[in-house]
Amino acid sequence: MTDQDKTSSEFWKHKRLSQMNHDEWESLCDGCGRCCLNKLEDEDDGRIYYTRAACSLLDIPTCRCTDYDNRKTRMPDCLQLSVDNAHYFDWLPETCAYRLLAEGEPLPQWHPLITGTTQSVIDAGISVRDIAKPESEVEDLTEEVIALSDGHSDLI
Q: Between vectors from CA 154 to CA 26 and to CA 102, what angle results, nearest 5°?
């Protein structure tokens, strides 16, 4: 059974985030790993900058958390997404389903709920598996700032 089989067909088109059940909510995650990259915030304008440095719990090749259920305990800075904090989703990547749906936008055509496979995230160039590096290997986050777009990443 795939993750999509656990949820009603195209639920994201007719349900608000607040109406989704747990399985539907969790299935919105495309597994790109972008939210697990360390970020820097410009103190002057509040702009968020992504870096290549990945959280120590992120398994970079699979772009999955190695201790998802306990991540908040192990990584107190980890932000757990919920409907209650949807108004803060602007820090999420522009390609993130949670952010897109909160802003009234559709899911991208490469999203696993549409394609039926997580490979589409890799094929679209959205996954961080080829750009992320363990935060333990990073000395200066400002040297690792990257620009994330709809499918490409470049060092700034």
A: 30
Structure tokens at 106: 């559709």
For 57, phi then psi, to 5°, come to -85, -10
Q: Which residues pair with 147 in a beta bridge?
A: 154
Residue 33 backbone class (left: φ over 0; alpha: ψ -120 to 50; beta: rest) = left
Model-level pTM?
A: 0.85
Tokens 């990259």 found at: 37
Q: Cα separation of 54 and 138, whole Å?
A: 9
Cα radius of gyration (the chain): 15
**DSSP string of 44-94, one letter each residue:** TT--EEEEEEEPTTEETTTTEETTGGGHHHH-TTPPPP-GGGGGGGGGS-T
The predicted-structure confidence for 1-34, as pLDDT tens digits, reads as follows 344 444 568 999 999 999 999 999 999 999 999 9
Distance of CA 105 to the CA centre of its chain: 16
Alpha carbon of residue 136 to chain centroid = 21
DSSP state of 134: E
Which of 96, 84, 83 lies closest to 39 in space, CA to CA? 96
Q: Residue 154 is encoded by which pair of tokens? A: 């470049």
